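Notebook entry, structure prediction.
Reason for the run: the old model in the group folder had no record of what sequence produced it. Starting over properly, with the input documented here first.
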Amino acid sequence: MKAMIFAAGRGNRMRPLTDSCPKPLLEVRGRPLIVWHILNLVRAGITEIVINHAHLGEQIEQRLGDGSAFGASIRYSGEGTALETAGGIAKARHLLGEEPFVAIASDIYCPYFDFRQVETVLQDNDVWGKPYDESSRDVAWLYLVKNPSFHPQGDFALSSFTVRNDGPAKWTFSGIGVYRMSMFDSVHPGEKVQLGTILREYIARGQVGGEIYRGEWKNVNTIDELNRLNGLVGAVD
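New structure, fully documented this time:
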């Protein structure tokens, strides 16, 4: 399985830090945010990694190189202007191939996530070995987390490992998901499209599975959050 790390965002809420440093290279506890993901992927045996970038992307390539320093093989998909998540996947399709892949937001901190679990979540056959019909099999698997204070309404509901657009209790999408490339057949390379738009369509069809991740997870969206993680102020919520 290959991995894609989304690293094309501008990081406006992290300015002025991100005026001169791309957000994925901001350090948390001694490592750039994106390096935490790379090391965890390699530890799980996922070494082929695609990274998209736009704002200050050359710094990301200079810092990470070809990935050999981490035991990985990194290829880059430069966008110039950020294409959003689904648009970024479509542009990098020739690098990712057609098999299911895991994608991770570079601006989350989840140091103990075990990526070994992602390789078996999308099944082609049922428990009796009978192939699923393409119109009913899961096309994506999402990892959801407890709603953080800045996003109390959550994103999706969950019912017996099936993700729902609505429900009595909602969880927040962690930024980690596994996807079939067929999801993005309608997105043309260079087109700007958000992943959420496509996900909700497939969720409505009952074709997105998911589970709750209960390990340490933080969405590093502000300088205050970054400072708390680095022990510079208060405790982390």
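Summary: The radius of gyration is 17 Å.
The old model has been moved to the deprecated folder.
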